[in-house]
Amino acid sequence: MRFYETTPTHDLTYSDVFLVPSRSDVGSRLNVSLAPTDGTGASIPIVSANMNSVTGPRLAAALARRGGLGVLPQDMHPQDLDAAIRWVKAQPVGWDAAVDLLADTTVAEAREQLPPIAGHGLVVHDASGTYLGAVPAERLADALPDAPIRDLIGPQGPSIDVDELTGPRAAFDLMVEAGIEFAPVLHQGKVVGTLSRKGALRSTLYTPALDDQGRLRVAAAIGINGDVAGKARAIIEAGVDVIVIDTAHGHQEGMVRAIREVAALGLGVPIVAGNVVTAEAVRDLVEAGATIIKVGVGPGAMCTTRMMTAVGRPQFSAVLETAEEARKLGAHVWADGGVRYPRDVALALAAGAASVMIGSWFAGTIEAPGTLAVDDQGRAYKESWGMASTKAVKERFDRLDAYELARKTLFAEGISSSKIYLDPLRPSLEDLLDMITSGVRSSFSYAGATSLEEFHERALVGIQSAAGYEEGKALPVSW
Ligand SMILES: NC(=O)C1=CN([C@@H]2O[C@H](COP(=O)(O)OP(=O)(O)OC[C@H]3O[C@@H](n4cnc5c(N)ncnc54)[C@H](OP(=O)(O)O)[C@@H]3O)[C@@H](O)[C@H]2O)C=CC1
Ligand SMILES: Nc1nc2c(ncn2[C@@H]2O[C@H](COP(=O)(O)O)[C@@H](O)[C@H]2O)c(=O)[nH]1
Ligand SMILES: [K+]
């Protein structure tokens, strides 16, 4: 990466910078590979944040199906974390995990799982597990809230039989012919998932992130306290592909010790550690045994660290400096936090990140944990909160006595409750991935790059004023 015209004399964040187009021989944006080379096996440079409101097993599976990597949070109880990892590993690759409801679930309860939007749907079972039928999500729109979901099972459209599924293109054509957007996928009369037209199309465009047994990849986080080695062994036993050791202040002795303990186990998976923002921290964590460094202190949407402590660093410069150092050491960087637009992802990659971690943006999706709520104006949202918020700290330390818990909550550095609205045009994680990857593919071609490596080398970055940033925004209504 080079700066255009001027070299900065102070630290910059994503909004301070822009990419300058360069002469390019990239004929098509589809000829661009976004695959990171950080050893995680991902085919797109997107990682979901280890936050309780962001990454649950459903989101992790959906993300891996499109080539990214979900990081399950360290706050899950060990048995839930174990079950979540195993669940992801058992999910289908070629179609989606079904939203599966019992026949007497009410329409109101179903709307907490799915918005009434075409292209989505659910399957219905009776109490004995017999499959009763599928319901396209748009049927939820006008149904009475207290009606049981079984009343919405209308005349069945065609289902897709796994044994006859020759490929995603054939499934897409079948749905077009039948005039449907969504279909259940059956195997020997049992539902094994669902598929949408868009899902079939995406299967032709994305490469799933799979382990050597052909299962979806997944990462999980552990903290730096307690039996770190025991926790690492347990998640490896469950099948995890990448271990993330995560704490607010990653450049501390406790972190160095934790990395050493995990590295000494020789588990054969990438070890990610953070969060830090300086080259010196990168050296220390890589020296201890981390292969990927998670970078970002304070940019997160749920994060109050900068206002509480003044600590942190504008994220573009933090990524640039740490990625440069990591590269020298044969290690990699994940840019964590503060990403709100595809441009931010492109800029993090230009600064040298191997992958970009996204939290709050993904919290407002169908696949994120938690249920959908609707505000006064009828807009659907999910709740999100920071992992260092009072809410998260109370949940994390729910087994401590009241005095110890009160001590822990003194240091809250995150928001306890925030509404993240679903984008009505892009309600699912996969819609956001389409937007992000198409934006970033285009960034690569403007820079004349066909790979992440070439993008790192060729990116030309300028510094802009606040007016320059403002000029780049679209105008939803006239002047
Ligand atoms: N990227 C970011 O900007 C930030 C992210 N977070 C996220 O919040 C979650 C909780 O992390 P965390 O609060 O580290 O909790 P952890 O449970 O991981 O514990 C952190 C440990 O480090 C000690 N510590 C020393 N100094 C600090 C410090 N300045 N901040 C925090 N801990 C410190 C704590 O002791 P003691 O409690 O006694 O001080 C505790 O033993 C993580 O998911 C983390 O990524 C949180 C803040 C910032
Ligand atoms: N200081 C805090 N940082 C937090 C908290 N919860 C999460 N985080 C960090 O934010 C990123 C995600 O950023 P986003 O802008 O995409 O939402 C996450 O990975 C953590 O590093 C918190 O409570 N306090
Ligand atoms: K912030």
UniProtKB/TrEMBL annotation:
Annotated catalysed reactions: IMP + NH4(+) + NADP(+) = GMP + NADPH + 2 H(+)
HAMAP family registered for this protein in UniProt: GMPR_GuaB1
Signal peptide from the UniProt entry: none
Repeat as UniProt keyword: yes
Cofactor(s), by name: a monovalent cation
EC number from the UniProt entry: 1.7.1.7
Keyword annotations of the record: CBS domain, NADP, Oxidoreductase, Purine salvage, Repeat
Example GO molecular function: IMP dehydrogenase activity
Protein purpose: Involved in the purine-salvage pathway. Catalyzes the NADPH-dependent conversion of GMP to IMP.
The protein's enzyme class: oxidoreductase
Protein name: GMP reductase
Protein family according to the UniProt entry: Belongs to the IMPDH/GMPR family. GuaB1 subfamily.
Binding site for NADP(+): 246-248, 296-298
Domain IMP dehydrogenase/GMP reductase: 12-473
Pathway membership: Purine metabolism; IMP biosynthesis via salvage pathway
Catalytic machinery residues: 303
